[in-house]
Write a structure and sequence with these properties.
mainly alpha; 5 strands
Amino acid sequence: MAQWLLDRLKESTPTLVGIDHGFSFPLCYFDQYHLPPDWSQFLNDFQRHWPTDQPGINVQSLRPGGADNDEARQGNATWRRCAEIRTREAKVRGGGEQLGIPVERRTPRAKSVFHFGVPGSVAHSTHAGLPWLRTLRTKAGERVHWWPFDGWDIPAGKTVVAEVYPSLWSGLWPREDRTQDQHDAYCTAAWLQQADQDGTLASFFQPNRTDTERAIAAFEGWILGVS
């Protein structure tokens, strides 16, 4: 999958890629392990402690009690990123106009990237995927804009990779005969296409943030569609 995506990222046609797992960790993690507020350095450090891109290494073997756990750093399920906290109030656009999801239909907050073993968890996929983001970032080069770490504004002609949370949009289209994973992928692609075509996509790259959130998101990241 990583090689397939790398091939797409290297194509000349600008592409928008949404990936459904965390791109970084909360501020508490950076403080706990005395890491500088820098995403590239975070990815390098994480890969040293969670080398899930290496043969024979997986998330389970690096978790507490696992065979390869000696060097793995652990987090706390109560730690949340700013964007995860904001998902409760997130509004999305659909049908060519702004669509505020009614309170009773709003998605629950995105779960912590350290909350393993519960429905809707992205902890496992995040810990498995972060080293591969590092690989893709290194090999894809300058033509890819990793939002928002490379800046909130998207330069013309660049391919963009962003974190997404499909639950924001999965209720906007009928599931039909798709599995849940297939439906999540479908709704993400459909929403991105719709927002691009109706001219609203650019506004989601500039979400409403406090000055503090903006500064923290430079290394915590943000979820596209959360405003």
